[in-house]
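(Fold this chain)
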Amino acid sequence: MPRYEKSVFLNCPFDDAFSPLFHAAVLTIAALGFTPRCARESEGEADPRIDRIAKGLSEAKYSIHDLSRFHGEGPDNLSRFNMPLELGMAVACRFQGRITGIQHNWVALVPQGFVHQKFISDLAGFDAPAHEQAAASIIREVAAWLTQQPDFTPPAPSARKILEALPKIGAVAGGGAG
């Protein structure tokens, strides 16, 4: 099992359109000496998905929550609320940690232009990093946040070096959803 202090739970879409951004975040987490974790690692287990997500969050000191997808989809124009739900679970982990002494820190990645303040206004007061739906901006924001965490151990490759390595990782991953 990965060390708690170096585990980062990644909460993001797993579809093909988001796949390059998922790979960019995973590569950045690993390049900075942390262990990327996500809900997909426990697929196939008999427990309900929400239980597996709660377990994954509880086994990671850090979590990153991408809230950049906020528009409705399909003929009914329904928005998916998995990302905000999992962020809420991370907030609860942090709150519970104040009681138990087990730390959890999280960050929400949001779309450009402060539009997130219209659909998740409770994040007001947090300086949520925004990204442009591009690998370079995901790498920049994830790296900036992780290098500020107490368990980060320098040195680390620059965001540019991580971006340059991404095509090699994408080829290995087969371009799939991760």
Notes: DSSP finds six helices and five strands in the chain. The helical segments are 19-31, 49-58, 82-100, 116-119, 135-146, 159-173. The mean pLDDT is 82. Residues 4-172 form a domain with the Rossmann fold fold (CATH 3.40.50.10140).
